[in-house]
Design a protein that fits this description.
Length: 152
Amino acid sequence: MAVYATIADLEARHNEQLTLVAADERTGLRDDVRIVAGITDASTEIRAILAARYSSSDLASLDEDSLAVLRVYCMDIAFYRIALAFSRSSETIKERHDTAIKRLEAIAAGKGALTTTGGSSGTGGDAGGVGQNEVVVEAPVRMFTRERLGRI
C-alpha cells in the first residue's frame, strides 16, 4: 500500500509545528511511529474517497503532477490526524483537513481530475482518441450486415 506523503514531506512543510504537535507526552521527543500511522491513515482515506472514480490501477499509475497534489492533501489530512492523536489540534489544522477532504471529494465527483502516466485507463487525458469522460463500448463484429444478408 503506497503512501502519498512521508515524514520528510511533513518536515519540509511544517517543521516547527510537527515537532510541537507530535512530541511524546513523557519524553518530549517527536514520536515518528504515530506520525507514520497518521500518514498511512491519511493515504488510506484518500484512496477510499477517490475509489468513487478511480480504480486501484489508476491510482498506482498517477503522474508526478497528480502525486504532488495528493501529497499536499495527504500532509494536511495526516497533520490533522497526528494532532488529534496527541490532543493538540487547532482550528487552522482542522480547516486545512476539511479543505483537503472537500477537494478530494470534488475530484471524485468529477469536478477535477488526476492524470496517469500510461493514459490507458481513460483518466489520463486523450488516449487513442478517447476523451476523459467519453464512453467506450467494445462489442463483437456484427453478424448480420447488409452485405451478408444480401448473399442469402
